[in-house]
Amino acid sequence: MENSQNNIEFIIHRGSHQIGGNCVELATRNARILIDCGLPLDYDEQDIETQNEIRENAQKWLQNCDAVFLSHYHADHYGLLNEAPQGTKVYATKETAELMKISGMFGEDLTEYLDIHPIEDTVTVKDFRVTKYDVDHSAFGACAFLFEACGKRILYSGDIRLHGKKGVLYKNLPQNVDYLFLEGTNLGRGVRQKTETAIENEFVKQFSSNSDSLHLVWCSSQNIDRIVALYRACVRTNRVLGVDPYAAYALELAHQNRQSIPNKTFPSLEIYFPWSFTSWMFEKDRQLVLDLRRGATKLDQTDLPVNPSKYVLLYRPKLIGDLNRYISKTKVCLTNSIWAQYWEQDKSEINRLKAWIEDKPELRQKLPDIHTSGHADVASLQKIVEHVQPKCIVPIHTEMPEKYKKLFQSYSVLAVTDETTIDLTNTKE
After folding, report:
1. What pairs with residue 393 in β-bridges?
2. List of E strands, 139-239
3. pTM value?
4. Would 296 be classed as within a structural domain?
5. Strand ranges (E), 286-363
6. Which of 231-235, 319-323, 342-346 has the highest average model confidence (pLDDT)?
7. Number of structural domains, the chain?
8. pLDDT in tens, 36-80
9. What integer pLDDT is reported at residue 362 of this predicted model?
10. Which of 41, 55, 84, 297 could form a disulfide with 88 if both were Cys (CB 3.0 to 4.6 A apart)?
């Protein structure tokens, strides 16, 4: 983008008409920043040519940008940062920065070549003054950003909801901004989302009604609210919650911020160490593994087939191979606590899980879903807008930007298409 003096422009590189893969650019004459740089949700389903095009585009967007502001650590928001030039500045919450560091043990270590800056409150990047606001989402450490430049105030919601444990945080968002970039993942779904307390009660019912089974629950290790709901349900049903090392690290980080969140020292929480997983971890950082084990209760996996009714395990599809070493002949109950479309993705670990289920006749029926969205429902979006009172709303992270004008009739709505440059200085809200 080219700018006249004191002008500010934006371009939605991706996200104006799709959920996930967000990337927004803000630019003045002297500065250019990106907000998120995510991997499209359907990336793995694309052919090689399309995948290469997606990565080449990300390289162009990231080239010579002054900084990237990362709203949270979900792949559809950070997944293309590995295309950034070495030394690219990335600003994120302290929690997101820690997750990036820890995730380097389990996959690609972005911290090795990116310049990560934890943002506590406000930072300045050339013409931009940027303030972080914590929000409720299914990712630990998620935030919104307020960008101030050239006399304009632009609020980027990131992914946000009100029905989680920290939903009240939306009341801290700034008011009377010029532009609100507002996610609309759940527009068109017409469903009021459940609270995490309701989810906890459903887990209690599930664990009680299948009292003689080992329960495996698939949910994100970064969804701290969900793991807390699982833990509380385990306590209420006299079970032990088993978590893998990655989830244990995430809980440890969350515990540092809020002591009520269970960590490795809590009763009814144990860490299981899958063999292949742990061997790999030892090779990457032996000391971190030893630190994690110190003071923790290690789950004895040989006890799983002996006392299946004692345990609930947080798992991911890629861990099934290791777990099956111990539970191949055990009565098992599987529960999905994830976005339903993840189950439909054509990924090797999901396909292996499906094949494993086919070999266990008792699991062939539809898996129960105990889940609530990480995104705001319609009523919540209206509350956010009523609080913020923006002069103009820009749809983002949505498949239905056309619904914004009907939903927010008292507000100006600026719906654009990907790769369209908008001069905010001269645009009438």
Report:
1. 180, 413
2. 143-149, 152-156, 179-183, 214-218
3. 0.93
4. yes
5. 311-315, 332-336
6. 231-235
7. 2
8. 999 999 998 899 999 999 999 999 999 999 999 999 999 999 999
9. 72
10. 84
